[in-house]
Automatic annotation (TrEMBL):
Coiled coil feature spans: none
TM ranges: none
Gene3D superfamilies: Dihydrodipicolinate Reductase, domain 2 (3.30.360.10), NAD(P)-binding Rossmann-like Domain (3.40.50.720)
Gfo/Idh/MocA-like oxidoreductase N-terminal domain span: 4-122
InterPro entries to which the protein is assigned, alphabetical: Gfo/Idh/MocA-like_OxRdtase_N, Gfo/Idh/MocA_Oxidoreductase, GFO_IDH_MocA-like_dom, NAD(P)-bd_dom_sf
GO molecular function, one term: nucleotide binding
Listed name of the protein: Oxidoreductase domain protein
GFO/IDH/MocA-like oxidoreductase domain residues: 133-256
Amino acid sequence: MSKLRFGIVGCGVISKTHASAISALSNDAELVAVCDVVEEKARKLAQDFGVKRIYTDYEKMLLDPEIDVVSICTPSGMHADMAVLAADAKKHVIVEKPMDITLSKADKIIEAQNRNNVIISIISQHRYSDCMQLLKKLMNEGKFGNIVLATSYTKWYRSQEYYDSCSWRGTWNLDGGGALMNQSIHYIDMIQWIVGRVSEVFAYCATRAHNKIEVEDAAVACVKFENGAIGEIVGTTSAYPGFETRLEIFGENGSAIAVNTQLESLFFKDGTEKVYLENYKKEDKGAVGASSAAINEEGHVKQYRDVINAIKTGTKPLIPAEEGRHPVEIILAIYLSSLTGKPVKLPLESDKEVLERIEQIKGKGFCS
């Protein structure tokens, strides 16, 4: 198979990371089209990456026979509709996180993937880091023993100007949430992928430092895992000036701490951590989460490479559509717990109750 031809829809900030990832894989991929309802944005991205075909009508772009894969970089609440249209047009799809903001929409993406026999992959680029791959391997090998405690911390900073920069930011309708759904989802995915599925949450969410948004800018959740471990998920966009993300795992036989997808600490009672550390390659920590531009594109490059390989070989990528559903479900369960003041068990039977309760606080924010 020759080069896969990509089209990007949504030419905002994150689209540049996707375009750069495609450009980095020029032997196997080519960006041939861009689309945005704001023509100026589409033209700017096209100019920056030497793209000739510019669309302002997404459905017209999908008619282009020279596009094999569509990368969706639009506001979160638009992801499912666009992914389904692309899959029904027999295009493979890469969707920026979150896959969408409700479970029913997430399920539509999964159904479209299966119905059309195409690959749909949800961005969770940190899974591809050497650090997270090593932690997953160690967990699968049982090196930590029974997991006792696991924590995920995303203490970033987003100014009010960040939220004001786009009308959809900080809204329930299109952002689908705040510090959890937009920022902390990265490490929420890491903790559930590495440690195991979450079985129960009890949470508090608050809107404290941003008076013009209706979603949370701080959240704390106590969690239980199916394997019996307990833990904590913390996320905020109010920690000035922005701090490093952390994933901590403590088991009966060993412990690990990852900071910004770099392994900071690894200890085993039997002293075998040296064997693993000899082969571990430290990666660039990348920028701390002080702004929406604090993104290291290396993870996106690795995920694009994985998807390209899956398409060419007819195999599954590391993160097919169904994998992207898990962190969204955890976040919705956290919202429901905060809004009801009660623990919430997973899996959720549906997201009807949480969406109804969110409807009641639209325009108000979480009361702390």
